[in-house]
Amino acid sequence: MMLQVPELDVAGECCMRVFGVRQLWCDDVPVAVEQCRSQGCVARREPFAVAIG
User: Fold this and answer.
1) Is the separation of the CB atoms in 12 and 5 below 8 Å?
2) Can you give the pTM of this predicted structure?
3) Euclidean distance between CA atoms 41 and 17, whole angstroms
4) Dihedral sign, CA of 29, 30, 32, 33?
């Protein structure tokens, strides 16, 4: 899910507080997907480029 928010820091804090999620930024998504797969996760879709801006 992708949402556009006016203030990223505020939205991140809200998600952590309300949903109990934590921020995890990854510079190399394909590597992160492979790490998850090695731990038994299944990717329903391969990583793809997202146009920002």
Assistant:
1) no
2) 0.49
3) 26
4) positive
